[in-house]
Amino acid sequence: MTVNVDMGTDPAGKTVPLDLEELLATRLLVQGNSGSGKSHLLRRLLERSAGHVQQVVIDPEGDFVTLAGAYGHVVIEAADHSEREVAKFATRAREHRASVVLSLEGLEAEGQMKCAAAFLNALFDAPREHWYPALVVVDEAQLFAPAGGGEVVEEVRRASLSAMTNLMCRGRKRGLAGVIATQRLAKLAKNVAAEASNFLMGRTFLDIDMARAADLLGMERRQAEAIRDLQRGHFLALGPAVSRRPLSIKIGPVQTSARSGSPKLTPLPTAPVADIKNLLLAPVEAMLPLGPPIRHVAPPEAVEAAIAAPPRPSVAPDLPERSADETDGIVADVLRALVEDEGDQQRAAAVLYQDFDVRCRMVGLPRPPLDLPAFTRRLACARAGIYDAPDEEWAQALAIADVLPDDMLGAFMLIARAAREGRPCPSEAEIARTYGTSSLGRVKRMLAYIEGRDLMVCRIDLAGKRSIALPHLGWTTEAAEAA
């Protein structure tokens, strides 16, 4: 289905359509100085394509939240949520094909980059069955994909840049079409800008930005002066989705508006200068001077009585000691809650250990019942559906798996559980979830690695069904479809 989005008119007054289906395949870069009309252009694109495609907006200033009332976008205020919650919202948005606006207003630059990276990575890592087409609009993209280091921590900068690179370089196969807008091309990472095939260049004045814009539009350097002369709301367009030759476009009107518009001149107050001076220079309430400190001296008999008195019990009595069975039950419940809250967005064991410690203390365990290595092994078992403390046979399975990296332990235990219970062999999708990936290729390589360590043997029968045997334990799964 071909959908043409009316973006405005050319110098002859003819409507300039933008092929939405072609845009999804080729991405878009918008550039222009502050006040050139970039946000107006993005709003026109979003309004005219609403209802035809899912839209995701990364909004650093909260300008696009007004789309919610007119077009039904769901606004996510990032300042009210944690990174993990924001990532979960992104996963749900892909699953339910909901148009959302991630408002980063109120966050510092580092917080905005962290939140945007978590959100974009969750969009990118969605399961294959949720790879529906979506426009991902990132305003002020130079904040999230800077060309060089800035004031933020290097680790945060790299994470944000990696998420933006994935969106522009690899997002197409996952249905994600990046639409990025920037004030200056020189501040935007080149490997992010270079992946766009459509360009809308607005007014800019710096020579370096005009030169890069002219190169992208296929114009000669002497023609770059035309970019400096563009009026507000006018853009030079080029790309397979809009025009095969540079074309001047005047962006059409929009239905919604940003919460913060351009400053307008208003009349100054007409009060006499003397009155204004009195208002500004009115006496400020003086702070009351601090008096000398008051010292309370207890009489000698009260001091002697306090010394002779028996010690008072502590305000917080010690927590009761738990039996081994009670402790194991609490640990199992806490692990089950951790895995359920974690969902498909698996986190490192060292990060989850902090959460585990807090939850255990909240239910009355005075000290962590497991150290980090033991917790890592129990977490892998829990991700495989084994919550209780390992019995003798499970302990033997864990001992055999000692040669495996920690991230493979959960997948191994999932297969071991199916083999011990005589159930069908887990599918590659189930193993992928336990392994913390959406790539079936990684699952195949991981299974080959474990089999190369002689810990299991994979067998595919003539019907194409796979079963896995664990020779050291004498357990075998039932045959099931390999994929």
TrEMBL record:
<dbReference type="Pfam" id="PF01935">
    <property type="entry name" value="DUF87"/>
</dbReference>
<dbReference type="InterPro" id="IPR008571">
    <property type="entry name" value="HerA-like"/>
</dbReference>
<dbReference type="InterPro" id="IPR002789">
    <property type="entry name" value="HerA_central"/>
</dbReference>
<dbReference type="GO" id="GO:0005524">
    <property type="term" value="F:ATP binding"/>
</dbReference>
<feature type="domain" description="Helicase HerA central">
    <location>
        <begin position="15"/>
        <end position="83"/>
    </location>
</feature>
<keyword id="KW-0067">ATP-binding</keyword>
<dbReference type="InterPro" id="IPR014588">
    <property type="entry name" value="ATPase_Atu1862_pred"/>
</dbReference>
<keyword id="KW-0547">Nucleotide-binding</keyword>
<protein>
    <submittedName>
        <fullName>ATP-binding protein</fullName>
    </submittedName>
</protein>
<dbReference type="InterPro" id="IPR027417">
    <property type="entry name" value="P-loop_NTPase"/>
</dbReference>
